[in-house]
Amino acid sequence: MKRYSAFAIAREALRHHTGWERAWRSPPPRAEYDVVIVGAGGHGLATAYYLAKNHGITNVAVVEKGWLGGGNTGRNTTIIRSNYLQPSSMAIFEKSRSLYEDLSQRINYNVMFSPRGTLMLAQTEHELRAWKRTAHANRIAGIDSEMVTPEQIKQIVPIIETGGPRYPILGGLYQARGGTARHDAVAWGYARAASALGVDIIQQCEVTGVDRDANGVTGIQTSEGAIRTRKLCIVVAGNSGVLADMAGFRLPVESVALQALVSEPIKPVMDCVVMANTVHGYMSQSDKGEMVIGGGADGFNNYTQRGSFHHLEETVRALIETFPMISRLKMLRHWGGIVDMTGDRSPIIGTTPVPGIFINCGWGTGGFKAIPGSGWATAEMLADGAPRALAAPFSLDRFTQGRMIDESVAAAVAH
Ligand SMILES: Cc1cc2nc3c(=O)[nH]c(=O)nc-3n(C[C@H](O)[C@H](O)[C@H](O)COP(=O)(O)OP(=O)(O)OC[C@H]3O[C@@H](n4cnc5c(N)ncnc54)[C@H](O)[C@@H]3O)c2cc1C
Q: Where does the Rhodanese domain start and stop, copy by copy (predicted)?
């Protein structure tokens, strides 16, 4: 694979851009692979890349029913931060955030990581206490994260209304090294880098069944035929329950729609990501100038990847209260993705009741930020057959052993 560089751009400019290669190969599926990963979202692709890069395992297929990155990875609002509450969450999210820092250089693909800072508002006394506790926990873990006053918030985000009518802003939890990245580029970059190392990415190939014998998994049935494997990793976000059902076990996850919208583009007004849990909305500004707005998850289970109007109304109302200057902006598009939520709002990475089948799911509303760290940890698990330290706390059996990793305050709404 030819490297992308300033020199390559100049060379192609001189020969009318006739020399660019396809970013990744699209081979037909082979009959058998050492590892098959279902789902070419960020987590599946990152897992494939780190399997090849860190562990030298390249006889790998990533099987995707649609187009790569077309699930939640290409639908999210791209917030990246690591200031979670529990030690195991902080460890995996900080690993991920730090991998994002030089990801573009490592995979030779510009993922547009922008550490512009993330700010989570406290608008009730309860929230203020919760964020203070998180800030202390973050400090103990060596993660940069601090409490800021309403005055500091006004300096960081001049367009914010701190004395709002219902819920004045009492403070905020700020992570200066948090930020955003371009979601498609993360999927495309990992796909290109994994493909260059020999991984087969097979799009338009839906998994319809899982084959087993007395010793565990033997392969999968797909719309492109059967594929044999003794190691299967299910990484399908909102469809996790469906795949688990095919494999013959159940997961403690619920699939719900989560939605987002963008406004018409405007001049730069905000260079920080702001999340307002109490009034329920969050906003950042894209490089194109659109205000990127995220809302809440639907209160009922479903599998349709689209938004619902009542949530839009609530989200926009919350944000107009927080940023009155957006009240006359036109909204351009809205969309939804299906996220899989666990009871403790933490992911599941681990083995399953079926030998040879591994799972990575349950990232709910906040898994974009985790893509590099999760891929790293899942690749370790697939290489060794069991999770290492980063993934071990997130095993499926924590639900039967009562070892919850409670992030319901830190992760349920505001990513
Ligand atoms: C509106 C919205 C906003 C969000 N905002 C943020 C945010 O700001 N920050 C953050 O950190 N996270 C955010 N998230 C969450 C984040 O997007 C997800 O946690 C993350 O993208 C999950 O990635 P994934 O690779 O696990 O899943 P996905 O990207 O959904 O990939 C799973 C893939 O599996 C494929 N698949 C499913 N079934 C099959 C099958 N039978 N056969 C083959 N392939 C199959 C799907 O087609 C899909 O491409 C948001 C999500 C949404 C919907």
A: 35-79
